[in-house]
Amino acid sequence: MTLDDEIRVLTEQEALLQFPSFNSETAWELGSRLRALAAADSRPTAMSITLGGQTLFYAATGFVAPGNEDWVRRKRNTVLRFAKSSFRVGKELAKNNTTLEVRQGLTLADYAAHGGGFPLTLKGSGCLGAVVLSGLTQPEDHELVVTAIAELLGMDVPHLEL
Question: Which pTM was predicted?
């Protein structure tokens, strides 16, 4: 899969995976599904769901390294800043041979253009929050989040080749 193909798939996932509504109950259902998928992998992960600046779900599997929580925060910041998946932001930066620091003046201490952050989008409203997973490889973090959202919404979406 070329970089352009990956960006196309990521963009399509974001366009398809939008919620008709979202509240704390939806966050619990999505978070529980994501945690179950991550736990089945048997590797330590940290995950978070935020809406309107409020954390509605936070969980971990296994013994998570202290740095994973910071990765969650940095990926969430990236999603909220660009209203795109953190993986797509990273792929677009790679395509343009640049970084968040150079292109946007953002510090890597606060932003991460790595897989695992996905916009929580309401149809017709735009990005209102983020779903984030950290602990696996970039593509695995991203795909696990996409799988959890797609399952909850009962949708079939294109996936990246891992």
Answer: 0.95
